[in-house]
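Quarterly update from the structural biology core.
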Amino acid sequence: MDANEVIRQLKNIANDKRKKTNEYFFKTGKDSYSSHDKFIGVSTPDIRKIAKQVYKDFNLNQVDKLINDEIHEIRFCALIIIVYKYQKNKKIDSKEIFDYYLTNIKSVNNWDLVDFTAPQIIGDYIYHNQNKLNLLFDFSKSNNLWEKRIAILATFAFIKNGEFKTTLAIAKQLLNDKHDLIHKAIGWMLREIYKKNAEITKSFLRENYIKLPRTTLRYAIEKMDKQQRLNYLKGNFYVSN
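Predicted structure, tokenized:
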């Protein structure tokens, strides 16, 4: 199966109902964060299924046609293909795929494209090659929304390996960001740290409470019990539960 056949299959299983759902869900209206994007209406499980069928036989030159397409689901399929390739041959192809991702980073331009790929490729590679760590901090200072989300989401790979300081440093750097998608991403990562070490997340929330976007706080405290969540929402950190 070549790139043209992948595109044909994706278009064949697309449907208008899913298209309208995606357009609403991803906020494609004028001046919204996805106003640039075009959807045809394919579900994530269906995209994954096709990517899994072809990734072993696809080289990066074949991925090029998909990753540069204007259609969201086609770009998504390309990115899932390279995630599978990275995970399958991490010891052999990791640098090549990492470099390829960076070369095509302009195509990683919606939150799902970031979330399903940045931890798996950018985060994993940098965790194992920490001489590249400054790249995440550079992205966190970018004017590009998606690069900033990549910066914080990539640290999910660090959290999974029990390393939290990078996430906390980037989270702190992004606290003044105005975009809701960054607020959610920070809160999500703080919640993941909470699952492994609740006290570290609590300490971060206490120390940065004044600057915390409300959305970030709500995401971060989701795993607390009800009373503790209420206390943290009110800034009552030292009330016994």
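The mean pLDDT is 95.
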